Amino acid sequence: MGSLKRIVKAMLAVALCAAMAVSGIGTGAAVSHAAEKKQPLSVNFCGKSAVLVKDLNQAEKQGSQVKFKTLEKKLGKPDKKEAGYDGSKDAWTYTWKKGKTSIMVNNFTGTVPGNIGGIEIEIGDKNASVYGVKVGMKKETALKKLEKAAGSEKVIVLKEGEWPQGEEKDGKYSLTSGAGEAVSDSEVIHAAMGPYLPLQIELTAGGKVKKIYYMNS
Hints:
The chain has helices at residues 2-21, 68-75, 139-150; strands at 41-45, 48-53, 80-83, 92-98, 101-106, 119-123, 128-130, 155-159, 162-169, 172-180, 187-193, 196-203, 209-216. By secondary structure, the chain is an alpha+beta fold. The protein is globular and about 45 Å long.
């Protein structure tokens, strides 16, 4: 997952500047996009499905958040439980992991106690999928699934090292172009996830899904 994590770090730095021009696009800010259709975030892990965010476009509303107990009922007990970054019993991180796949959730965003805050998904094998996109799937099939889930205007294919730029108009937003400098010919699919950083899908040279990465915090 190293290459995708490098992309995320670059996008985080650029997002600080982009926020000055386009509020909420890729910044993690609590922005409501009322004109957008509902876009939940769900994951399938080892044959079990669970919703992680009820509506990415209503990020600041409590009704869009999911309680950890609800997630645990869907996915089972996590493989790893840790105290939060400050060692407080009120801060926590839980991880489900199998093979090259892990799903991590925490409450580090100041949510109501028991609610999921930050999320990190790393998928490197067939133990999980997001929006039906799996490792080994053809690029064209993955694009169709992502466009159905998020909207065709919110999905873009760029070279590794580039990051998507967003545009917002009348409460709706899209990924319009790439910025930055490509570091290879490898392609990465980006799908907008509300005001958070996009979902990123690394492709093989043969045009198949190699890795899937998503995070918000």
